Description:
Elements: H1 15-42, H2 48-65, H3 74-80, H4 86-95, H5 99-102, H6 114-133, H7 139-153, H8 164-177, H9 187-210
Helix pairs in contact: 1-2, 1-4, 4-8, 6-7, 6-9, 7-8, 8-9
Amino acid sequence: ARRTMAAVRGSEMSWEERERLEAQADLFSIVYTVEALEKAWVRDTITADQYTDMCRRLIGQFKTVEHMIDGLSVPDFIARYELSCPAAQHRLLEIGVPATVEYSRGGDTSAGELPRAVAETVQHFITSMDALKLGMVAVDQIQPLLNDLLAAITRIPSLPPNFAAKVKTRQWLTTLHAMRAADQLDEAQVRQCLFDLESGYNDFHRSLQSS
């Protein structure tokens, strides 16, 4: 029989059970909201700014609530309640950034806005590298910084979609997105991430000099 959230309600419920149930209800709501948001974006019924702001907020809420459903992974939760949400699964479980960031090619950045976009990209590179050097290696510490970095890089129109720093940053965000907020990068991961950031930073400077 098809299970629903109502099926697990009971008249006598411990505080822990109630908290877990509320977290599951929040997750249920987030997943379906993201599914609807992705469809609205594809159908062009909301603006890019509206989509990006809402998607970032929902991804942040998802990262907060996913660790609160103890003993049940998100894919297991989706399977248990037979949720049909392929777009939400892609955005929340695989990518972790809005589609406007994932696919942007910088075409919306005007010539007048370009110097600021370049300066912000440089700053996000430096901030991300400094954070790792200072021991900020928890997922909820480094992931927002890499999100900002990717968003900045994608605003530079001269950089191709396969620009190494874009690819590496997306890969790291995918890795981080599969981890829990309180998880930490191990020593080898920190070293590799720092190497990728430094390489990307140098590549970015070279691309500016050649453009």
